[in-house]
Amino acid sequence: MADLFSNAAERSLEQGAPLAARMRPRTLDEFVGQSDVVGPGTMLRSAIELDALSSLILYGPAGCGKTSLARIIARVTKAHFAEISAVNAGVKDVRSAIEQARDRLGQTGRRTIVFIDEIHRFNKSQQDALLHAVEDRLITLIGATTENPFFEVNAPLISRSRVVILSPLTDDDIRHIVRSAVADKERGLARPVVLTPAAEDRIVLSSDGDARTALTSLELAASVAVADDRGIATVEVDHVAEATQTRQLTYDKTGDAHYDVVSAFIKSMRGSDPDAAVYWLARMINGGEDPKFIARRMLIFASEDVGMADSQALLVAHAAVKAAEFIGWPECRINLAHAVVYLALAPKCNAAYLAVDEALLEVRQGAAQAVPDHLRDRHRPGAKEYPAYKYPHDYPDARPDQQYLPDGLVDRRFYRPRTG
Q1: Which domains does the chain have, with CATH numbers?
Q2: What is the pLDDT of residue 348?
Q3: pTM of the prediction?
């Protein structure tokens, strides 16, 4: 009787759940995207189907299918699925899940998958509490994270698991998921809906590869669309615009997205593409990046990549730094854009940058070199015995025939100006 009530309660919960939860894939064949990871013939899919899976760390952006994949694995392998959120769980919760897994295995022979969402939020002691259970295969750990696990997850836990990198869903993937939700009469939208092509495009664009965002937008848009006499609601682009408001592009100021966008920004300026450089600048602005950080990166770039080809670039970049400090958002975006376009269009020369790094390598790894006697400070006892120093301004071209490098490096060249 209890099972009947439990099943009825579970069905009620499913029916009242958000569209994104109702549309979770139940099998590997229903799983959309990540074909290079779990598609037919892949190693991970074979391991899942053969029930030979080791612990996993699923690393990917929000809405790419990490939780859904973990639930599918539990379903396929018939393992008990225990879910822990790293946001509000502690060591006590981890140990309790492990003890329950031990009892379950001993009493029924059924193995346990412990799924930890946002595992990067666990501190070292919380992660360490998992080590022995994972190593002994008392549990199969599936951790999900949007942060690079090689930075955020302890090395011992990484070594006992397989890191699986999931990509953002493509536009085609999102479109397929949205159309499935419209067509699925059992788990999809609560009422008949027609989605116009423009509305579908807006949902796909605003989702930024996040299936949960796409389905939430669809559900909200469908809820405000008015049904006709036949009870069919047509979702227009205006309904979607009302539901989505603004497009939220992935940008974490301390995570991989931050470093990826900054890298693209620098490389676009280095490649003399002002359009791309301004686009990546806009991504950082929209993501709430510190304007002083952006300006500092440009100040480095002015000498590292433009250098002697246009020394004025350093002054322009320095002015952008001062503008970022003095003005701030939103007005300093204009100053930053001015500097970005200037740096992108400037000629490029990294000779000074290469020169100092080569000189540093010589200083750190080469033989110790003495200062030539004629260059030594002459304000000391015995300085009068040093050879005469030729004062450059006494010569017409200010370049007397005089050695400046140490004796052991007389013919060494560090600065090699670019020609042509």
Answers
A1: 34-165 (3.40.50.300), 171-244 (1.10.8.60), 256-345 (1.20.272.10), 366-409 (no CATH)
A2: 93
A3: 0.60
